[in-house]
C-alpha cells in the first residue's frame, strides 16, 4: 500500500513504463495490489466518490532514467503543485549534521531512547544541529481497532503505512512523558539491546507474514501453525 510509483520493463518493445499515483481533489492513491489495481483513499469516511478522472499518470520511454525525468516534468505542468529538483534552491541546513531517529529506532522511537541518543552524540563531540523524530511519534491505529487508542506493537516500517492518524497529537509514549524526567534522580534506564530485540522480532513477524500470505494463496495446511507462531512472536 505504500508504493509511491511502479516501474515496469517491457521486453517486447524494449521500453519501460512508469505508473505514478497522483492526488485528485481529496483523494490520494498510495499504492497497488498484485494485479496493478490502484488503491485510492480519502482517509475519511465522510469523503467518498464513485469515479475519478486522473488518479495516476502513465509514461513510456526507452531509457528508464529519461523516463522518470520526462514523467515528473509532465506531472509538474499538469499538477502545478511542486517543483523539480533543478528548480529548487538547496537549503543551508544540508551543511549541518543531522540525526534521524529512523536509523536506530524505526517506529519504536520513544522519549528515553531519543534523549540517550542525543546524549551519546554530545559526549562524542558529534552533537547534531538538526534532529528528525521520524515514524513512531504519531497517534495511529488500524481500521479494525479501537478508534481512540494507539496501535500497539508497531516495530518496522511498512506495517504502520496502512494505519491512520486518529488525532493530530503525539502518540501515548510521547504524550505521557513528564518534563525533566530524564534529568532527575529517578530517571528511567535505557537499554539499546531492548530496541534491537524488538526490531529482530519485527523482522521475524514480517517473514512469518509473507509465509502466511503464501499459505493462504496455496491453501496450505500449515496456515494455523504459522498464525500461532506470529502470535507467540508478538507476545
UniProtKB/TrEMBL annotation:
SUPFAM superfamilies: (Trans)glycosidases. Keywords: Carbohydrate metabolism. It holds the Pfam family Raffinose_syn. It comes from the Eukaryota. Coiled coil: none annotated. Belongs to the glycosyl hydrolases 36 family. This is Stachyose synthase-like. It comes from Vigna radiata var. radiata. The lineage of its organism: Eukaryota, Viridiplantae, Streptophyta, Embryophyta, Tracheophyta. The gene is LOC106758389.
Amino acid at each position: 500500500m505504500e508504493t509511491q510509483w511502479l516501474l515496469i520493463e517491457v521486453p517486447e518493445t524494449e521500453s519501460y513504463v512508469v505508473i505514478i499515483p497522483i492526488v485528485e481533489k481529496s483523494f490520494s492513491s498510495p499504492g497497488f495490489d498484485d494485479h496493478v489495481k490502484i488503491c485510492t483513499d480519502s482517509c475519511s469516511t465522510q469523503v467518498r466518490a464513485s469515479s475519478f478522472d486522473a488518479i495516476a499518470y502513465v509514461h513510456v520511454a526507452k531509457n528508464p532514467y529519461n523516463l522518470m525525468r520526462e514523467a515528473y516534468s509532465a506531472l509538474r505542468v499538469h499538477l502545478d503543485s511542486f517543483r523539480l529538483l533543478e528548480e529548487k534552491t538547496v537549503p543551508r541546513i544540508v551543511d549541518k549534521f543531522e540525526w534521524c531517529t529512523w536509523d536506530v529506532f524505526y517506529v519504536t522511537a520513544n522519549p528515553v531512547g531519543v534523549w540517550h541518543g542525543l546524549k551519546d552524540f554530545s559526549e562524542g563531540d558529534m552533537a547534531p544541529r538538526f534532529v528528525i523524530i521520524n515514524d513512531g511519534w504519531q497517534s495511529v491505529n488500524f481500521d479494525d481497532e479501537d478508534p481512540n487508542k494507539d496501535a500497539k506493537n508497531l516495530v518496522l516500517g511498512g506495517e504502520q503505512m496502512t494505519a491512520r492518524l486518529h488525532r493530530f497529537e503525539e502518540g501515548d509514549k510521547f504524550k505521557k512523558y513528564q518534563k525533566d524526567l530524564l534529568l532527575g534522580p529517578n530517571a528511567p534506564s535505557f537499554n539499546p539491546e531492548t530496541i534491537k530485540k524488538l526490531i529482530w522480532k519485527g523482522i521475524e513477524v514480517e517473514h512469518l507474514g509473507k509465509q502466511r500470505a503464501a499459505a493462504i494463496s496455496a491453501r496450505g495446511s500449515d496456515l494455523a501453525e504459522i498464525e500461532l507462531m506470529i502470535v507467540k512472536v508478538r507476545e
